[in-house]
Specification:
The complex is a heterodimer of chains A (444) and B (178). In chain A, 11% of the residues lie in helices and 41% in strands. In chain A, the strands form 8 sheets. In chain A, strands 1-8-7-6-4-5 form a 6-stranded mixed beta sheet. A 4-stranded antiparallel beta sheet of chain A has the order 11-10-9-32, with no helix packed on it. Chain A has a 4-stranded antiparallel beta sheet with strand order 12-13-14-15, with no helix packed on it. Chain A folds into 2 domains: 9-167, Rossmann fold; 176-439, TolB, C-terminal domain (Neuraminidase). Chain A has helices spanning 9-14, 56-76, 100-105, 152-167, and strands spanning 19-20, 35-37, 40-42, 44-47, 79-81, 110-118, 124-132, 137-146, 176-183, 190-197, 204-205, 213-218, 224-229, 236-241, 247-249, 257-262, 268-275, 278-285, 291-293, 301-306, 312-317, 324-329, 336-337, 344-350, 357-363, 366-372, 380-385, 388-393, 399-405, 413-419, 426-428, 433-439. Chain B has 178 residues and is of the alpha+beta class. Chain B has 2 domains: 1-31; 32-174, 60s Ribosomal Protein L30, Chain: A, CATH 3.30.1330.60. Chain B has 5 helices and 4 strands; from the N terminus they run ααβαβαβαβ. Chain B has helices spanning 4-31, 59-66, 81-96, 114-134, 159-165; strands at residues 69-71, 101-106, 142-146, 167-174. In chain B, α3 (81-96) packs across α4 (114-134). Classes of the chains: A mainly beta (444), B alpha+beta (178). The A-B interface holds A 186-189, 191, 212, 214-215, 228, 233-235, 255-256, 258-259, 272, 274, 277-279, 300, 302-303, 316, 318, 322-323, 346-347, 360, 362, 365, 386-387, 389-390, 405, 407-411, 436 and B 37-38, 75, 110-116, 118-120, 122-123, 126, 145-148, 150-153, 155-157.
Amino acid sequence: MGKRGFFRSWPALLAVFAAWVTLLATPARAALEVQITRGQVQPVPVAVPDFLGRTQDEQVLGQKVAEIIRNNLVRSGLFRVIDPAAYIERIQRFDTPPQFGSWRVIKAQALIVGQVAVLPDGRVQGAFRLWDIFAQRQILGLQFIATKREWRRIGHKISDAVYKAVTGDEGYFDTRIVFIDESGPKTKRVKRLAIMDQDGFNLRYLTDGRALVLTPRFSPAAQRIAYLSYATGVPRVYILDLATGRRQMIGEFPNMSFAPRFSPDGRRLIFSLLENGGSNLYEMDLATRRIRQLTNTQAIDTAPSYSPDGRFVVFESDRDGSQQLYVMPVGGGPARRISFGQGRYSTPVWSPRGDVIAFTRMRKGRFAIGVMRPDGSGERILTEGYHNEGPTWAPNGRVIMFFRTQRGPNGGPHLYSVDLTGYNERLVPTPNFASDPAWSPLLK
Amino acid sequence: MWNKETIAPRAGRWLLAAGLALTLAACSSADKPQLDANAGNAALSGGAGQGGPAVPGSERDFILNVGDRVHFLVDQWSLTPQAQETLRRQAAWLQRYPSVTVRIEGHADERGTREYNLALSARRAQAVKNFLVSQGVAASRISTIAYGKERPVALCDAERCWAQNRRAVTVITGGARS
């Protein structure tokens, strides 16, 4: 697949066959769950032997799929993967229950056994069983089929299934990140739109770096990306269709349009438009191209984000003198200020769960990422330092990604993820400097 | 005999004032004409090479003898007295060479968030345009663009650099002599 069919092919060609594997036991996760005490997570010890395969090719793939799963589970912070060198039993058969005693000895609570097969048409099939070592029973068994090109997604799909079975939350591993790749010196930074799998693999550039691009955002179906581009000289919002590669300018306004974001149903786009010495919020119906003005001030109203039910918009405005967060009904109408702490509040993003809003807070020369409830209560800072900016949510509302810029003339930004609890902060691997991350929804 | 206790705070105040003056001097030196990669894209063709006298009406003349940029205070877009002085010179020069068209490029320092800085730098560019228009330059000769924090010229992570980056640069887009 080239640019065409990047996402479209998934439902059509690889048809996620999430078939229940035979021997399925009743799903029960009573015995196996993540313990969270006082914010500190007790990771579940899990064993993930290399997946089985009949041919050498399949065995190599089996090792790689197991590695993807181990990496995902470890990075979530909710699992501890036991070193495969410590495994006593060598799994030989997919259909035979494991020797529970030998896994108990190495203190595994869960065991993932899997096998990989390359089908005659070239597609790759991955099946797994998740065993509860103490209850001595299978918790889950599933198989997935993917095109040869997208075989890594089998590892992500299995990771998501295991994550859900153990934590009760939806997973977030079969997702992508769109971001701005940054190269070159700070005075002449080249910025390119880039997309990669959540774990940093399959990186692909979507623009060539000739035009400055900023603030990409996914549509809810993960098929389109709205972003700001300086391609024509006037900075404007564009929508890129990943399946067709087609780019479309959103409205020919006399002034800069910026800060785009899709509505939860994907039918509308909200953005800022410069006017009156400030910027107002507008919403466009993407089918009819009709636009509607949502705010009318001389202030800078920007960085809008919808609530997941589509009824409200949170945005930042300096209408009261400095950047603060406001919530208003989606049709426009009175906006209510929700941030009242010390400092300036910026880049609000509503959690997919709806329960909190993530933001950037600037105070005394330090930039923090935090969350607060939609009524402004319960403010909690997840990370603070010289410069942290631009949170984006994993689709399960449990993990936040943002960018952090190092000080200094040669400093630049990198992507980081952090758990909603503030624990488990991790660098997200990118080849160059990277900023403005946006996390896709779970892929279909 | 002088009482040291009463003298000291006074001296301190003077020192403070002197420090302030130095800071201001530093600011106005940043307002002085300078050439850098972002100053304009056309070759500095006015005049006999580097260091030679600039041809009146050329881009080089504008940058060296008028000053192509003004600076702003933190999170501000109002024009300082120094900025207004520079812009009066710019307006006079633009009226002397009525075929010249310009683009005002607004910039912010890196100590803000992306979207807000875009809007803030747009306000700065607009403030410069409004001032030039108030001085008699036709609005149709002036376009604006906002770069937010995307195009810094000074790179240290200290106020002396951020102050240089909070700027609006008047870039000649056409009509200058060569």
